[in-house]
Every structure is written in C-alpha cells, then in structure tokens.
Write a structure and sequence with these properties.
seven-stranded mixed β-sheet, globular, alpha/beta, three-stranded antiparallel β-sheet, 9 helices, 14 strands, about 325 residues, Spore Coat Polysaccharide Biosynthesis Protein SpsA, Chain A
Length: about 325
C-alpha cells in the first residue's frame, strides 16, 4: 500500500509571513508531511525560512491571472486569503497529495497532528466546530448570536481528502466564495466560513472533529479551561491542547487575548503564560523573516477602522 503524503498549508499576505512560519514550524506528524506557505501580493524574492522543510510559493505562479484579478479586485487582503483557500487546496490535491490540511497563520500547534490525519482518512472533509457546549446566558462577548453570525464551523482549519467528492466540494466552495466571500457577518457572509455550515448536509461524508483540544480560541474558552500539567504541557481539561487559534491577538498588547471578547480575564495565569510565549515567538519570527514590501493589490478601502468599514460595505454593495 502506498504511504499517504499529506500537506499542511497556510496562505498569507506580506504582513503575516512571520505568523505563518510560526504556525507551520509548530506542526509535527508521524507520517510523511509537506509544509507549504503560499504568499499572495508579495513581489520580492521568496523569504528563506530557517526550517528547511517549509516550502514557499507565490500564488501568482500557480493560479490563472483572471481568477487572481477577480479576487483581489473585490476583497480585502484577509478576504483574499479566505477566497483562495479552496483553489490552493485543490491545486495541491491535483499534484497527487493524499490530503491537505489548511491552517490560518494565527494558529499554533502544541501536540502532534496525527489525530487530524487519522480522522480525515475515511472522509472527504474534516471540520472543527466553534464550540461544543452552550454559552452562558449573560451579556458578555462572544455570545451565541456572535457565533450564529460567524457560522457553526471555524474555517481557520479544514482538512480535505483526495477523493472525487472532495474535489467537487472544493469546486462548489470556490465558486461560492469568489461570488460571495465578503467578511460582513451583519449581512450574512463571513468570508469563506458561513459556507461550511452547508457542508455536512450537501456532502454527507464529512467528519466533525470534536476533540476539545482542537481550535481552542476565545470562542470556546468558556468550556475549555487551559491547564498546565506536571510535564509543563498545555491541556484543556483532561485532553491535550492540540492547537490554539490566536484570532484577534495583537503582539503590541500581548497580555490581551483578543479585541473580540470580554469573557476571559487576564487573571488566568495559564492563558497569560501561553500568550506571552506566543508573543515572544512572533517577535523572534519578525527578526528572522522580515517583509520588505507592501501588499501589491492594496486599495484605499482596505483600511479597517470603523468609518471605512461602513464606506466599504456601501462601495461593495453590488459587487
């Protein structure tokens, strides 16, 4: 029997190169693994990572110019990375890989990733839900309404097997996000993420990965308190921490988990330790992997302050 060869990948614009290297370097797997970073909008020579088995590619060298132009002309840099996801995953599967696991650049692994590959083997796709237990009935953020707007599953991680149905799923997802991939939860879209709500219905051979240590983040810490065991290993309850998603983390305020929540407090010493260690890794990565150029497709409406968000929604209403 041929050995399965899997890839873990990330997609990044220039300012997230250090984050992506931290994410990809943290991954270990027993079976044969490729780690690939796809850059979009980066015109300089490819950065050379100090980790020999991370491959770096330019998206522009692999996708049709018409597809890239349509995506970059409609979306912000973050939305561009969201919309590219199904195209890049399919590209790698077409190269003959057994499976592809996508991770956002603000994810870091703390345990071996074998459980993800083992869970994906018999399925077309593998998804992680935002949470497994209801939110408390209070007025803190995030709330159940927050996640209803964002979607059932978090698209910061997705695993896809190399099957005919999975390739069809990727075509459907790509067509969906190239048309409706804006990150506007109030208007019913959240980049590529809300489309995943439909996957278990439209593609029944999809697995939901319910491991409490997977995709731990501000949206599920109400049910997954972090612990540090005697071996100095992070756990969530009785389960090892598989990977943490530092969504909304700002290296300039490393004691703050994210600007998107007020449910968890800085008095949690284990969480504070985790954030401090991650911030230090990012600082070191910024020195090792500096980025010299700005995003090639930058537009005036890409800024993320409140009034610009309103202008952008109005400007793109009929796009």
């Amino acid at each position: 029997m041929n050995q399965r060869v899997t890839a873990f990948i990330s997609i990044a614009t220039t300012n997230h190169i250090p984050f992506s290297f931290v994410a990809l370097k943290s991954i270990s797997l027993t079976s044969k693994i490729k780690r690939v970073l796809f850059l979009i909008g980066h015109k300089d020579a490819l950065p050379t990572p100090n980790c020999a088995d991370i491959e770096v590619r330019h998206v522009e060298h692999y996708l049709e110019p018409a597809v890239i132009q349509r995506i970059v002309s409609r979306y912000t840099p973050a939305e561009v990375c969201f919309a590219l996801k199904p195209y890049i995953i399919k590209l790698l599967l077409k190269e003959g890989l057994s499976s592809v696991h996508y991770i956002d650049s603000d994810i870091r692994f703390f345990s071996n990733a074998d459980a993800l590959e083992a869970s994906l083997t018999e399925y077309d796709a593998l998804l992680t839900p935002h949470y497994l237990q209801p939110f408390p009935n209070d007025h803190l953020k995030p709330s159940v309404l927050t996640l209803l707007r964002s979607g059932v599953f978090n698209a910061g991680y997705i695993g896809v097997n190399n099957t005919p149905t999975a390739l069809y799923f990727l075509d459907w997802w790509a067509e969906s996000v190239i048309r409706s991939g804006k990150n506007e939860p109030r208007n019913g879209t959240c980049g590529d993420q809300r489309w995943l709500d439909l996957v278990p219905v439209l593609f029944p051979k999809c697995a939901i990965f319910r491991h409490p240590g997977a995709n731990v983040a501000y949206w599920n810490l109400h049910e997954r308190p972090l612990l540090l065991n005697k071996e100095n290993i992070y756990e969530t309850g009785e389960y090892p921490l598989l990977f943490f998603h530092f969504s909304g983390f700002d290296i300039n305020t490393p004691s703050q988990l994210t600007r998107y929540q007020n449910r968890m407090h800085n008095t949690d010493t284990t969480l504070a330790k985790l954030l401090a260690e991650y911030a230090q890794e990012l600082r070191q990565a910024r020195i090792q992997y500096p980025y010299a150029t700005s995003y090639l497709y930058k537009r005036w409406w890409h800024h993320n302050f409140p009034c610009m968000n309103i202008i952008r929604r109005w400007l793109r209403k009929n796009w």
